[in-house]
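User: Show me an example of a complex going from sequences to structure tokens.

Assistant: Sure. Here are the input components:
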Amino acid sequence: MRRLPNGKRRWRARVTRHAPLPAWPGLLAGLFLCALILGPLAAVTWRAGGGGWPVAADWAALRFTVLQAVLSALISVALAVPVARALARRRFPGRGPLITLLGAPFILPVIVAVLGLLAVFGRGGVLNDLLLWLGLPRVQIYGLHGVVLAHVFFNLPLATRMILQGWQAIPAERFRLAASLGMSPGTVLRVLEWPMLRGVLPGAALIIFALCLSSFAVALTLGGGPRATTLELAIYQAFHFDFDLGRAAVLAVMQLALVVAAAAPALRWGAATGFGAGLDRVQRRWEAETPLLRAQDAALIALVALFLLTPLAAVVWRGLAGVADMPAQVWRAAAVSLGVSLAATVLCLALALALAVLALRRPWIEALGLMGIAVSPLVIGTGLFLIVNPWADPARLALAVTALVNAVMALPFALRMILPRLREVEDSHGRLATSLGMTGAARLRWLILPRLRPVLGFSAGLTAALAMGDLGVIALFADMENATLPLQILRLMGAYRMEQAAGAGLLLLILSLALFWAFDRGGRDNAAV
Amino acid sequence: MRHLILATGLIATATAAAAQDRPVLTVYTYDSFVSDWGPGPAVEKAFEAECACDLQFVGAGDGAALLSRLRLEGDRTEADIVLGLDTNLTAAARETGLFAPHGITAEFDMPVDWADDTFLPFDWGYFAFITGKDTDAPGDFRALGDSDLSIVIQDPRSSTPGLGLVMWVKSAYGDQAGAIWDGLADNIVTVTPGWSEAYGLFLEGEADMVLSYTTSPAYHLIAEDDAGKMAVQMDEGHYMQVEVAGKLAGSDQPELADQFLAFMLTDAFQSVIPTTNWMYPAKTPADGLPEGFETLIAPDKALLFDPEQARALRDAAIAEWQAALAR
């Protein structure tokens, strides 16, 4: 905002005084969020009678955690830029379904996805078979590179979608103007695409960084040994092996501090792009219509599809055998998961909209949203358990708590998608709407919601799918009747039933993708996304 | 959201109403005990047939999570019985002061003597490396370290078998344990957070061997008709896991709790264990073990630290493990 010319800033200040959209829902949502995250943290600390000091091994865990999270975030985002660009420039049959499918790795339960990855990159995987056939030495997946590979597998689709959204926010008229001025692809990159990327990339990298900070099972399983200890494992150990609640709380605060430290610069650099309004035409990219660029984009899309879809194919293949004879508990769990997921979606969208309106005036609000993924689910779960336990049987609230926590965990993604679009809408149409006296509910109904529809649909799809696949806090609260599908998969695996677990994994994949597709599709109706 | 809370509340109320006329015995246990394919359903049916009560299992993660939950709840806990701790946890569990003596004298069919007045064993097993039938596996830790076999193990900081292996090496080699881990370090492909991930990786062919129990091949043989897996017999002997149950001092159903502990050692409970929990029953039932268990290896020597020793040695033993593997 600071970069806008003076006149515009004064104008904005005047608009703000009119308060076209009320701030109180955002304030309420913010308070609720703080209470939900800081409350449990405080409860754990209080129960421990104060914080504990981290031990030497925790500092090593901190270093490794930051290292893998930074690498994962940077590589995911760096790879996502050309992929998103290729997808933004090309229209081809099956593009829509492909974009939906590319989102799948992100929503799988970790262990299902890891087994899928190993089917490709593992010792007996496709890649090593191929290398063997070519007479080349085997590659070893276990180590820091394996951790980063898995995190890129999970997060590249997310980064691609966030960046793609940025591309689509550039009004089609700009590309038309660029074409009529005879701009080369290089010039278009410099004049149109780079300013957009500068606005979008820091936020995308920040979210992936925050996500990877609390990685536990992936980091340890693929990391190859105790070198790959993350803060989240240290928290788990503090809780369950040492019962050192004070240390767990301090470690959780360290996680939180890392995200806040990363959020400050990222949110500052990720400034608004200020392309102004367009007429919502379908983008056409005259400058990129050369055979060479066409071939380059096709190759990129094919490569990334191969990277993301081969492990998924392995998940499907492994699951087919088990899907026929799954125990009744699996179906019950699937129904429970669906309910939790829909409740989480409604809650998340409401929170995100309220906070986004507030964040128009106070950009740092977005950092508040990030806390949800920054704080260890184990700490939130334990804290909520401590808070609930004196009043009610925690098992009775298991599903409500799971929906709540999932809504909060998906909030950063929803905010990241909704906020830039809302800012664009307000920048381009806000003045007119205000001068027409369109405020409050009417403004929301007629101006904002229709224009946010694609991002709302995507956010809803992502939240629903995430909530389907999340293990999060349920493990601490659940009893037998209300286990979710991911928990049931883990239980099947814990009883040697790998085949049935793979079947349940496939069921989860199908349900999550169907939810994601339905919401995303609903949002994209009539839109050219 | 509100509907969900309402629905959950209604279901809970309905269940409570149905059981109102019978006293409720609440047993905290680990997850896999209560699943449809675990011992829980059969045990519940058999006990309810003789107790005129409502037996309610509450599953809480694994053994370590079980103890954490109990500590979080403290005196306020609803639990009458906790079932599923092992000897690595009982020292800390006893220290909470939440448990009462069981008052039962019994003979057990276990390779070690049992004289604990608070915790009663219900099953046990030996840790072992599992591999394919054709693997030429060395019979001791030194030779294993020298071999080029790949192994996947669990993290002792987050998993019971992982801790079991660290204690195994410690009890067999004492001060030399660090050197043994140095030898094993290059064989260990990766360390997983829990048993499931490690066993899954092994079945996917990611390693030649996995740390599990001597009874694991029985699952493949009996449930899958697959005789292709075997446990490797080690000359040092095999470390044991003994799983126990205890009665809460603050239980509001002390007689029922006593009745359950006594029931736990009868055939009705013990005969369910081998093919649901895939462990050895603490007291062999009259009909003996199921067919297929006779094919399992019988270690020459059983290793087990007593609970106080286990607790005293744990942190240093894990540090040795970590130092060797972090290199």
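The lines above are the inputs; the final block is the predicted structure for all two components together. The first helix of chain B runs from residue 2 to 18.
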